[in-house]
Amino acid sequence: MSERILVVEDEPALQETLAYNLTRQGYTVEVASDGQSAIETARRMHPDLIVLDILLPVLDGFEVCRILRQDMNTPILMLTARDNEIDRVIGLEMGADDYMTKPFSMREFLARVKAQLRRVRLIREEMDQEAGLAREIIRFGNLTLDLTRREVLLNDQPVAVKPKEFDLLLFLARHRGQVLSRELILERVWGWEFSGGSRTVDVHVRWLREKIEPDPAEPTRIVTVRGAGYRFEG
Ligand code: CA
């Protein structure tokens, strides 16, 4: 069965171009032209990926992202008309997985789509393997990662983490003791094979530290390795 993609874009010409090119790659595509119908379509079709414009009628893309993230972890590739760092940070905070500024080349768009779908496939495969091994919980002292429920617990109390924070923590935890570069983290957690997004890693590490470090100013769990990246100590 082919992978399903929901394209949310209110400009008819761009919507048609994106849908046409994705269909030609063999994906099953549905489209929506405003925020409300985007949410309804996403809940009905359970897409493998959502391409989401930010400026939309009825509800904007940030709002759509926030609402969908309450019960879906489908990757979201956001589109914006402006190259704006604030939009990027808000989008990521709302739970978007990747971000593209218009105008973009169709080649780069298709590469990003492919990268996101590949990342999700890898996560599913790893989760299937873990389900087979019945290894659903990882513990580091008072910190627990529940893989089945995608929950983080500190002293057995749930800690509210965003889906991407969970993915990042899990990736770090699986490579405990290893120095991981920002580029590798971006590729494996965000599916970005493109440079220039390493601040995203730093922002998410900071958010995680605020939640799981005894003293976020002097981190002992997620340690910065100067000039190299990050290392999870447990
Ligand atoms: Ca728009």
CATH architectural type of the largest domain: 3-Layer(aba) Sandwich
Query: How would a crystallographer describe the biggest sheet?
Result: 5 strands, parallel
CATH homologous superfamily descriptor of the largest domain: Response regulator
Number of strands: 12
From the N-terminal CA to the C-terminal CA, the straight-line distance is: 40 Å
Bound molecules: calcium ion
Helix content: 40-55%
* Integer-rounded radius of gyration: 18 Å
Q: Which range does the strand content fall in?
A: 15-25%
The total count of helices amounts to 8
Structural class: alpha/beta
* Strand line-up in the sheet with most strands: 2-1-3-4-5
Number of domains: 2
Task: Please specify the SSE layout and strand pairing.
Layout: E1 4-8, H1 12-24, E2 28-32, H2 35-45, E3 49-53, H3 61-68, E4 76-80, H4 85-93, E5 98-101, H5 106-133, E6 137-140, E7 143-146, E8 151-154, E9 157-159, H6 163-174, E10 179-180, H7 182-190, H8 198-212, E11 222-225, E12 229-232
Parallel strand pairs: 1-2, 1-3, 3-4, 4-5
Antiparallel strand pairs: 6-7, 7-8, 8-9, 10-12, 11-12
The chain binds calcium ion.
The site of calcium ion has 5 residues, from loops.
Descriptive overview:
The protein has 234 residues and is an alpha/beta fold. It folds into two domains: 4-129, Response regulator (Rossmann fold, 3-Layer(aba) Sandwich); 134-232, Winged helix-like DNA-binding domain superfamily/Winged helix DNA-binding domain (Arc Repressor Mutant, subunit A, Orthogonal Bundle). It is 45% helix and 21% strand. The protein contains eight helices and twelve strands. Helix 6 (163-174) crosses helix 7 (182-190). The longest helix is centred in the middle third of the chain and has 28 residues, at 106-133. The chain is globular. The mean pLDDT is 90. The structure holds calcium ion.
